[in-house]
Amino acid sequence: MNLRPLLPALALALACTHSAPVQRSPTPESTPAAGPDELILVESSPVETTLDHEALPDAWRVWPEMIGAATRTLEIEQFYVSNAPGSRLEPVIQAIEAAADRGVRVRLLAEEKFAKQYPETLERLAARRGIEVRRMDTAKSMGGVQHAKYFIVDGREAYLGSQNFDWRSLEHIQELGLRVRVPEVVRALGAVFELDWALASGAAPPATGVSPRETAQEGSSPARVAGERVRVTPVFSPRGFLPGQGQWDLPRLVALINGARRSVRVQLLNYKAKGRDGSEFRELEDALLGASARGVKVELLLADWSMRPGTIEGLQALHHPPGLTVKLATIPRWSGGFIPFARVVHAKYLVVDGEAAWLGTSNWDGDYFFKSRNVGVIVEGAAFAGQLERFFADTWNSPYTFEIDPKATYTPPATSSEK
After folding, report:
1. What is the pLDDT of residues 134-179, one digit of tens each?
2. Structural domains of the chain, ranges and CATH numbers in brackets
3. In sequence order, what are the beta bridge partners of 107?
4. Angstrom distance (rounded) from CA 167 to CA 406
5. What is the CA 264 to chain-centroid distance, rounded?
6. Whole-number Cα distances in Å, 384 to 179, 184, 226, 380
7. Which tops the pLDDT comparison, 16 or 417?
8. Which residue among 254, 344, 372, 413 has its CA within the 20 to 30 Å range from the CA of 361?
9. Neighbours of 79 (CB within 10 A)
10. Distance CA 370, CA 237 (A)
11. φ, ψ at 253 (rounded to 5°)
12. Quick check: 324 pLDDT over 80?
């Protein structure tokens, strides 16, 4: 299948939803917004910690509710799917099966590399009538992996965020996602899904070669948060595999940091100023250093998995408090025993001046922006950014975090098996 005939329609779908350039506003519009929130933060917190927020709904409750309301279509794009008997993910899987049983068209797209590692639940769903599962060999098309985590219900609402479709993500990992009821954002996610769905069936990749400085800005859309108006813009990666190339996330992130006047706060699983092949990736590091140099307070919060050689050295060099502070977070082991690839902070977001924010599925190293599929949103307005500020502060000031010591020798924690 050749994807090129689809691209004009996909590009038009995005172009129709974004017509004005993004204007960062220091404060939300003064007129209160009527109706329910259209951007809702949704968390997962590790059990046996103090990181849970009563004011934020839990993903393990929100996902079955959203899927259970589907009447026509359900599109799911995930890094991988890993279930366990009696886990919090099992009701989600059952909700997907029930949707197919009542006539909802279900399409699920997962990364080929990890489908080989976690095949069981994908095979279970693929065997169900009404569910079509495709595996995307992203290395062949983009060069990296399909790392996005999102789903779309009836083309009317969507969920995106750091949570993988992994039972551990709902119980043993700190995560943050977003329930989105903004039509323009949902349509943009749908356009990306259709592009990837076609790629997974063997369609030719779209033409690439767009320079980072050639990406045209596209417009934002209004949304309601806590009774106030904010502006939201969908953003994606990698460059060259987007229905609208102005939707590339990297230049938008750099612009947010470059525009900071007081504070930049970032939480990720990991951060690295290189690609996996060792190539330099300076865009975000230069922006963070530039912000610190002009007096902006920069705080970077990462998982203790970043203690591994090849990563920790760059973080130790970056750490220069009080202007630029790097902290790591360690989640204590579960009382029931060791859990591989869990007990970690995994949320991915940025807050600038308490007024603008990004939330997405990408960690920050070169491959995530140039070779791998990721999705996210940029939101302008203190009503939303303030919620992220509070979330950040609760983790930053928690007993689970500590400042990096530039002179220390670190031993990375066990991740896949007990040491």
Report:
1. 999 999 999 999 999 999 999 999 999 999 999 999 999 999 999 9
2. 4-23+36-403 (3.30.870.10)
3. 75, 132
4. 35
5. 18
6. 13, 18, 8, 8
7. 417
8. 413
9. 24
10. 7
11. -65, -45
12. yes
